[in-house]
Design brief:
The structure is a homodimer. By secondary structure, the first copy, chain A, is of the alpha/beta class. Chain A contains 11 helices and 11 strands. In chain A, helix 1 crosses helix 10, helix 2 crosses helix 3 and helix 4 crosses helix 6.
C-alpha cells in the first residue's frame, strides 16, 4: 500500500482556505491538512516574534501528520517567519509572498507594483524585497489596509462603507500609477468586486492563491512527489477555536460546506467544543 | 512594613486601560497589576470555551502577584467567564457587566436600555440577564458592533466612515426608543463623540469604566481593604505581545505615556522583544 503524505497548510485563520481551494483545483489528487489558528488570529497586527512563535508551534503540529510539503497560506507568517520555518523542516516550504511577487512581475508593463496587506505584512517589507531581488528596477508602492479583514468578516464585501474605506486606502496607490496590485492577504480575494471599482481601468489584481497553487504543483512535480495514488484525496480541517460564525465564514471562503471541523486546544490536542 | 497587595486587572488587550484609568482616579492609593492579552486578542469573536480558558490562564498569572481583588476589565470575559473565575479564587472578583447594568438602570426613565458590544458579549445575553435580574420589567435592546474595535484601533475615532458605521449599527436601537445606551466594550468610550452624533438627544451613554471603579471602591471599602499605606501607588503593565503600534494605542487610551511595559510569552514568563 502506498503511503499517502498530505500537504500541510496553515493560516492565522480561515482566509488561507482561498489558497486551499486553488491548490485542490490544481493538484486535485493531493490530500491536505489545514490548520487555522482561529483562537489567536489575527496575526497582521502582532509582532514578528509572536507570529514566528505561533508559526513554529503550528509547523510542529503539522509535522505530526507527516506532510511532504508545507504551505504557509498566510501573508503575515510568510513575510515574517519563512526562513525560520524552512530551517525547522527538511521538506519544501512554500509561502505566498514569493509567488505573488513573481505573478505581479509577469503582468506589470510599467514596473510599478502596488501591494496591499495587513500592517505587519506591509511593515515587514517582504514584498518589496521579493520584487526587487527579482527585478531591481521595479518600484513597489504599498499600503496597509487593517480594516479590510474586519469588514470581510462582518460580511460587508459589497457594502458602501467598504467601498469608501477602499477608496480611502487606495487613493495614494492610484496616484502612483501602479498597473498591478498584489492582494497581499488571503482574505482580500473576497473584495475583488469592490477593488475593481476603485482601481484605475487596466490595473491587474494579483491573487497569490492561484500563484501559490502553481508553485506547489511545480515543486511537487519537480521532486517527483505528485500524488499518483488512486486513493481519493482528503482534506482535514483543524482550528484552534470554533467561534460563533466560523462555519458560516468557512463556507463563504470555500464556497461549499465542510462536513467536519476538528478543534484543538493550546497543546494542539483535539477537543470537543459545545454548541458547534 | 505593610505588605502592599495590588489590584489585579486584565483585558483581551489594552481597552481595559479605560477602566484602569477610572479606578486609579477613584482609589488613587492602590497599586495595580494590569495584563493585556495582546497576543491573542480580540476575544469578542471567539468561543466561550476559548475565552474562559484564556481568562483562567491570566487569573493564574495575576494570582502570583498576590492581589487583593481581581477586575475583569473586559466585557467579553465578564460576560462569559465570571462564574468560573470567581470559583478559582478566594478574593473578590469585579466584572464590568454588572456595574454597567446597574448604572443603566439608575439613569433610564422609560426602562428601555440599549447595549452595544462585541458579537460574543451580545450573544452571551449577559447584560440582558444582569438588567432583568435587577428589574424584570426593564427591556434590553442589543446590537453587536464588530467593526468598532478595528475602527478605533485604526485611529478613526472621528472619521466619516466611523460615523456611517455607527449610524448603520444604531439605526435599530434608535427605533426602539432606548434612553440609556450601555457601552459594552472597553474600547467604546473613545467613540463617545461619534455616538453622541448618532443617538437621539437625551440618550445617556453609560460607560462601565466609571461604574466599575465605583464598585471596586465599594468592595474594598466594605471589606476594610482600601490601601492606607503611604507607599506611593504603582501600576505594572504586562502584555503578551508588544506589536507595532501598541505603545501609541496605549497612550491613546491612557492619555499619558507608560514608562515600561513588560512582555510575557505563552508560559507567562517575562521576555525581551526586539525593536520596542
Amino acid at each position: 500500500m502506498v503511503e499517502v503524505r498530505p500537504l500541510g497548510m496553515f493560516d492565522s485563520g480561515i482566509g488561507g482556505l482561498t489558497v486551499l481551494d486553488a491548490i485542490s483545483r490544481r493538484v486535485p489528487r493531493e490530500s491536505i491538512v489545514y490548520f487555522g489558528d482561529t483562537a489567536r488570529l489575527p496575526y497582521g497586527t502582532k509582532s514578528k516574534e509572536t507570529v514566528t512563535r505561533f508559526s513554529q508551534e503550528i509547523v510542529r503540529f503539522l509535522m505530526t501528520k507527516n506532510p511532504k510539503l508545507i504551505v504557509v497560506a498566510c501573508n503575515t507568517a510568510s513575510a515574517y517567519s519563512l526562513p525560520v520555518i524552512r530551517s525547522m523542516v527538511d521538506i519544501p516550504v512554500v509561502g505566498v509572498v514569493e509567488p505573488g511577487a513573481e505573478a505581479a512581475l509577469r503582468v506589470t508593463r510599467n514596473n510599478k507594483i502596488g501591494v496591499i496587506g495587513t500592517r505587519a505584512t506591509i511593515q515587514s517589507g517582504a514584498y518589496l524585497e521579493a520584487v526587487q531581488s527579482r527585478k531591481p528596477e521595479a518600484k513597489v508602492f504599498s499600503k496597509a489596509c487593517p480594516l479590510f479583514v474586519p469588514l470581510i468578516e462582518e460580511g460587508w464585501v459589497d457594502h458602501p462603507v467598504t467601498l469608501e474605506v477602499a477608496q480611502h486606502y487606495l487613493e495614494h496607490l492610484a496616484a502612483c500609477e501602479v498597473d498591478a496590485l498584489i492582494l497581499g492577504c488571503t482574505h482580500y480575494p473576497l473584495l475583488k468586486g469592490v477593488l475593481e471599482q476603485v482601481v484605475r481601468p487596466g490595473v491587474v489584481l494579483v491573487d497569490s492563491a492561484e500563484e501559490t497553487a502553481r508553485e506547489v504543483k511545480e515543486v511537487l512535480s519537480g521532486k517527483g512527489m505528485l500524488a499518483s495514488s488512486l486513493i481519493g484525496p482528503q482534506a482535514e480541517l483543524y482550528v484552534s477555536d470554533m467561534h460563533l460564525n466560523l462555519r458560516l465564514q468557512i463556507e463563504r471562503f470555500l464556497g461549499f460546506a465542510v462536513p467536519r471541523i476538528k478543534v484543538v486546544n493550546s497543546e494542539f490536542e483535539e477537543v470537543e467544543l459545545q454548541g458547534i
